[in-house]
Structure formats: structure tokens, C-alpha cells
Amino acid sequence: MGCKFIVACCHILRQCSRRIHNRASKQFAEEVLKAHNDYRKKHGVPPLKLCKKLNRGAQQYAEELAASRVLKHSSESANGKCGENLAWASYDQPGKDVADRWYSEIKNYSFQHPGFSSGTGHFTAMVWKSTKKMGVGKASASDGSTFVVARTGRILVKRGQNKTNLVITFI
């Protein structure tokens, strides 16, 4: 009787822990989404919606990054299967702070010569007009640092597309 009770208690605790984690993950994703949409609104582009499939992929990859404690883009991103913004911090970073850091690249953006550059990739991904959905994942490493992954559907960049997909306004 004692062992069954302990096993049942462990099962209940595990289920409660999962629910709390899932609720926190959803809350974090919604915080990142809200910040993205606030910035997108400033640039006159439509809001994004969270996508369960992209959330799962982003969460899984955030957990891989946290386990390895190495910040690098995924093979899916490198192969052009998805857009991907990454963030790392030595503390538990709030979602708005992550989005603010990505958006801060606007200061490096050349409004005279619009287009993608390596110093503005996070910013341009945030305000890319044709993007409709995103997914967000966050995981903590054993040292307490956090890894955040934001994924969007495939972003196809073709010659001349910047004019229609990057609605960059002076704000």
C-alpha cells in the first residue's frame, strides 16, 4: 500500500508540474507575441498569431540549446525551412525584454538602402510583412541561463521583395 501511494503522489506531482510549465510557456509565448505585434503595428504590418506546430518546434529546439549551452541556429533555419530568432541570457529573461533586444537592431537599419543585413536580421524578421504565424520556446540550462527560440514559417527572400515585405517607417 505504501509504495502504490508514493507512486500515485509522484504521478500527481509530475502532472501538476507539467501543467504549471505549460501555462508558464504559454504565458511567455503570448508575452513575446504581444511585443512583436506592438512593434509590427508601428510599421503598419498585420499582427502575428501563435501556431502550435511552430511553438512545439521552437520549444524543442530551445531545450536542445539549453542542454548543450550553445547558441546556434538550427538546421531547419539554415536550410530555409523556417525563420528563426534566438536569444540567450544568464538570467530568466522576460519575453518583452527578448523582443526589445531583437527590435533594438532598428538603430543599425539603413533606411536609405533598405534590405537585409547581418546586423539587422532579428529586426527585419520581426517586421517582415508576409509573416503570419510564429512559435516561441524557452528553456533553462543547468546554470540558470535561458535560451529563447522564436520561429516563423518559411521566409522567402527574393530580389525586390524587400520593398513589399519590409514596411520600414521612421518612428
TrEMBL record:
Classification via PANTHER family: CYSTEINE-RICH SECRETORY PROTEIN-RELATED
Alphabetical list of SUPFAM superfamilies matching this protein: PR-1-like (SSF55797)
Check the UniProt entry and state the signal peptide residues, or none: none
Of which family is this protein a member? Answer: Belongs to the CRISP family.
Q: How does it assemble?
A: Homodimer. Interacts with CAV1.
Q: Taxonomic lineage of this organism?
A: Eukaryota, Metazoa, Chordata, Craniata, Vertebrata
Q: Report domain SCP positions.
A: 27-157
**What Pfam families is this protein classified in?**
CAP
- Major place of residence: Golgi
Organism name: Meleagris gallopavo
**Annotated Gene3D superfamilies:** CAP
Question: Where, per UniProt, does this protein localize?
Answer: Golgi apparatus membrane
| Protein's membrane topology | Lipid-anchor
Its Gene Ontology cellular component terms are: extracellular region; Golgi membrane
Q: Which domain of life is it from?
A: Eukaryota
This chain is encoded by the gene named GLIPR2
**Which InterPro entries is this protein grouped with?**
Allrgn_V5/Tpx1_CS (IPR018244), CAP_dom (IPR014044), CAP_sf (IPR035940), CRISP-related (IPR001283), SCP_GAPR1-like (IPR034113)
> What name does UniProt use for this protein?
Golgi-associated plant pathogenesis-related protein 1
Keywords per UniProt: Coiled coil, Golgi apparatus, Lipoprotein, Membrane, Myristate
